Amino acid sequence: MPAFSLDQEQITWCAELRALAAERLRPLAEKGGPGRVNRPLVAALGDLGLLARAVGAGAFDLCLLRESLARECTEAETALALQGLGTHPVAAFGTPAQRARWLPEATAGRAVAAFALSEPGAGSDAAALALDAVPDGRGGWRLHGEKQWISNAPEADFATVFARTTRGAGARGVTAFLVPAGRPGLGGEPLDMLAPHALGTLTFDGVPVGPEDLLGPPDGGFRVAMTTLNLFRPSVGAFAVGMAQAALDAALAHTAARPAFGGVLADLQAVSHRIAEMATRTEAARLLVYAAAAAYDAGDPEVPRRSAMAKLFATETAQYVVDSAVQLHGARALQRGHLLEHLYREVRAPRIYEGASEVQRAIVAKELYGRARTAESASSSAPHEEARAR
Questions:
Q1: CA 45 to chain centre
Q2: N or C: more exposed end of the chain, with fewer CB within 10 A?
Q3: How far apart are CA 81 and CA 70, in angstroms?
């Protein structure tokens, strides 16, 4: 297992990202409305070259991007992540025509992307998708149904949409389509969520799609979805680490200066030990995230397990650290507009989206038991192979 420490170039780049987030992106974020796409912010991310880097990045670079932005401006981080999530399937599985049409616009921040996987009855169980792709008799399909909790919906300019083309086939019967806004029968509404993310519904009333809209082969959409999620899961952990670090920094500054009981809060053992626990968990989460990202970039076959562990531990850690920071600050942290009040609303969602914590535990357990069974099978067959060799 390699040790993870950033080199000087990476350290400098992360510092530059934090400065850009604080000085250029946060003012744009503050002008945006909650729950709606902030197009000036997305355009600024494009102008700065961050969207192009996110779409073309490996997992490790993507994690550094998201962690650095999250420490200073969660809205900028989320806008980048949602754009990357919706655009990656086009970059990885799109046809030359699709890539030529949409990638320049998306990476410049002129076209907003969506990743339309979840449905009212299919959240954690992505293989249970019910959005129906009905053959139209001319080589294409008509989409019928609804998507819910979709990034950047319904304002996105195009969406990666996952629909069922073969009934009764589970994950093997799902197909991915690139669906531009404005298609007949396509509608939707924004959702008012706890965190100020741009999320909404998409409704499909016979929306036409054809072979030219396919992302990957028919019935190959589950691979498109899982490939995208395996890349982004460690970086969800990086987002969480960035929020945890921001909360820890705020708690350190506050407890070191806040007068209490003839000294400052930091003099109290209960407080200093809580800070130490927050810092230790944050660093452990960061290392798990970096390990998962490095494994993805190296083509490690254990990417699903490592990605799941990183997202699970980092998001649960961020919840603990932000909650602890609120507790150490007291009532002031609950005032609207306080950094920790903002983080408290932001930190809850990552434990659910892109695979809830319970799903990540199931993935980890499945991978571990599968590896154990493989090892046991290999061990039991070894004596027979040895006997035949004699």
A1: 17
A2: C
A3: 11
Q: What is the pLDDT of residues 48-79, one digit of tens each?
A: 999 999 998 899 999 999 999 999 999 999 99
Q: Which of 354, 358, 376, 386 is catalytic?
A: 354
Residue 2: the pLDDT is 52
Instruction: Give first-to-last CA distance, the chain, whole Å.
Output: 37
What the chain holds in terms of domains, given with CATH numbers, is 8-108 (1.10.540.10), 113-218 (2.40.110.10), 223-377 (1.20.140.10)
pTM of the model: 0.91
Whether residue 164 contacts residue 129, with contact meaning beta carbons closer than 8 Å, is answered with: yes
Cα-based distances in Å from 277 to 250, 273, 280, 281, 320: 15, 6, 5, 6, 10
Tokens representing 62?
């993507």
For the CA atoms of 122, 84, 110, 51, the dihedral, rounded to the nearest 10 degrees, stands at: 170
Determine whether 386 is an active site residue.
no
Taking CA atoms, 201 is separated from 116, 192, 383, in Å, by 9, 11, 58
